[in-house]
Amino acid sequence: MGPELIGLVAVVLTCGIPVAGFYTYYRVRKLRSEERLAALEHGTSIPVEPELSQFARSRRAGILLVSGGLGFIIMFALIARFSGEPETMVAGSFGVLPLAIGLGYFVDAALIRRDLKTA
Question: Number of helices (H) and strands (E), helices first, in the chain?
Fold first, then answer.
């Protein structure tokens, strides 16, 4: 594999993955809309899914980011341990960013909960 092919693959994946994500999002929304319209035509009632509160969204984002950051750090710690290359742990430091953002979301969720209790 030459460097030209690697560059081409990198560009195609960089552009292709977001396009595939947008298309998937579009198709799912379109299918849900068609399903609802068909149910309305047949006179079936459609249960409305409740929206998550701002507290729940912050808590969910915090959980996902903290677990992702910790998983990233643990993964590179294990790689560094078993490969015998301690400098591999430098890559694990990139897990601190999602960890810190997740902790920020937890603080945000706690502040929202406190504001809801006082209101």
Answer: 4, 0
First to last CA, the chain: 62
How far is CA 93 from each of CA 21, 43, 55, 72, 97, rounded to the nearest angstrom? 28, 56, 29, 9, 8
Instruction: Output the pTM of the full model.
Output: 0.58
What letter represents residue 6's amino acid?
Answer: I
Residues 113, 55 contacting (CB under 8 angstroms):
yes
36: which 2 tokens? 């609802």
Interval 84-106: pLDDT, tens:
888 888 888 888 999 999 999 99
Q: H/E/C letters for each residue in 1-17?
A: CCHHHHHHHHHHHHHHH
Alpha helix ranges (H) inside the chain: 3-41, 54-83, 89-92, 96-118
Residue 47: alpha-carbon gap to chain centroid: 26
Q: What does residue 116 show for φ and ψ, rounded to 5 degrees?
A: -70, -35
Q: Which residue has the tokens 């945000």?
A: 108
